[in-house]
Each structure stands twice: as structure tokens, then as C-alpha cells.
């Protein structure tokens, strides 16, 4: 279950970074 949680957290972080980059762009 830890792996699943880690994957979800990584995905969220990646999406957040993408959103910030798009917003900044």
C-alpha cells in the first residue's frame, strides 16, 4: 500500500509542477 501512496503523491507533484509551469508560461 505504501507504493501506491507514493505513486499517487508523485503524480500529484508532477501535475502540480506542470500546472505551475503552464500558469507561469
Automatic annotation (TrEMBL):
Top-level taxon in the UniProt lineage: Eukaryota
Record protein name field: Uncharacterized protein
Amino acid at each position: 500500500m505504501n507504493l501506491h501512496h507514493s505513486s499517487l503523491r508523485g503524480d500529484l507533484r508532477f501535475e502540480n509542477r506542470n500546472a505551475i509551469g503552464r500558469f507561469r508560461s
